[in-house]
Request: fold
Amino acid sequence: EIVLTQSPGTLSLSPGERATLSCRASQSVSSSDLAWYQQKPGQAPRLLIYGASSRATGIPDRFSGSGSGTDFTLTISRLEPEDFAVYYCQQYGSSWTFGQGTKMEIK
Amino acid sequence: QVQLVQSGAEVKKPGASVKVSCKASGYTFTGYHLHWVRQAPGQGLEWMGRINPNSGGTEYAQKFQGRVTMTRDTSISTAYMELTRLTSDDIVVFYCARESWDDRSFDSWGQGTLVTVSS
Reply:
């Protein structure tokens, strides 16, 4: 099973700042089969990024994904108040597994 | 628009089973795999398995093998997930999620179903 480790566990930033979230896999993820999801309290997760770098439908361009192999990054260029949430990475190259999440909180 | 609507919250006793439904609309039900994901309160997401609504074929995470059964009723565009031998560790929210047609990420999610296990 591919284990995904996200860092940091919590990220404290202010609106307008840039956020960089990391996701590291225990082994190489094939074909960049990696996604990022956003989850707000009491809500289901929402797909942000798939294929490591493609934005899902309706996702603002301040969200971007990059990386390959074992190291992946989600970047939010300028944080909006609605971006404070928990973010999960997911690999789907070998079955499906999720990272443990990064909580983005307002500083 | 694509919608996945899940059944309501349940309270079960330890050792019991629960069956959660996920009704799909806004797309061809048999054209997309459906997955089930578990989330304990304040915890992360855990993949449980998936079903091919067209063939009925299933694939389960090893952790849940022997305890989970996923089925579907194509006549009403509904998928089901049954989990047996519930314990207090099963106080969770279950989500169904649709697998994207052009890659294997999850592009639509149900609203979640809370299952509480209490004696």
Q: What stands out?
A: Chain B has a mean pLDDT of 95. Chain B touches chain A at residues 35, 44-47, 50, 59, 61, 95, 97, 100, 103-107, 109-112 (CB under 8 Å). Chain B is about 0% helix and 50% strand.
